[in-house]
Amino acid sequence: MTETKRKGSRSAKDIPTAIMEQLNAGKIETANLVEWLAVDQKILLKNLLEEKERTSYLAPILENIEQLKKQTVNTINEAIGKGLYKQALQADDSQFLMEIVSLPSDLVRCWATYYITCDENRTLQETLELIKPFAADGHFGVREISWLSVRKLISEDISQSIKILSEWTKSKDENVRRFASEATRPRGVWCEHIEVLKQQPELGLPILEPLRSDKAKYVQDSVGNWLNDASKSQPKFVTQLCEKWRKESPSKETDYIIKKALRTIEKKT
Length: 269
Fold this sequence. Notes:
The protein is mainly alpha-helical. It is built from 17 helices and no strands.
């Protein structure tokens, strides 16, 4: 999918009715965060299942959504993705995933990432490889949900995850390189912390080192934020690493990363 050229509205109330209808029907991608938050995922799900002739899947998933302690875009996203997997598994519906992975709706593709992570018969390597196209997706929302969907799996086997994702840092696609960093951030955003990386951030060096002078700002921001996360529990490690990088990699890209990495430390001095 390519990044949409359409400009989104600045507030939910300003989204044209026709656009909102298309979004809820799954016919177009959201253009910005405002639209992403405005889509009614339950309506979108209903429309998708009617189109794909799987209406029997709807009621159990809606019931799961109603039972959520907190209904947010992310919790509903996860509930739908995992719910679709469960319903398809019970129906022996092996084709359903293939029918939704490349649909126009970015939110449907988000559901697909959670769907993929439900299969416990896959190895971590296999799951991450299936997630990689979503990590490279042209839509910001899909890219964010792609790493959120595997965050728990990564945390449960951080050694193997870092080994796998360190190879992703060699990708020509900046989105894939960024995923390697963003998915392993010690604290991260909208997610549980990875305690071992908070205390031993040096474990992340196989991912961080290859990206220390990455040309893409998207990647630079993630690496800088990774180290800023780590600085809140291991400031000495981050300070020493930044000093090392400054000497070994004197570039504007590295300087930018270092500035972001040290921002919390510098506020305290």
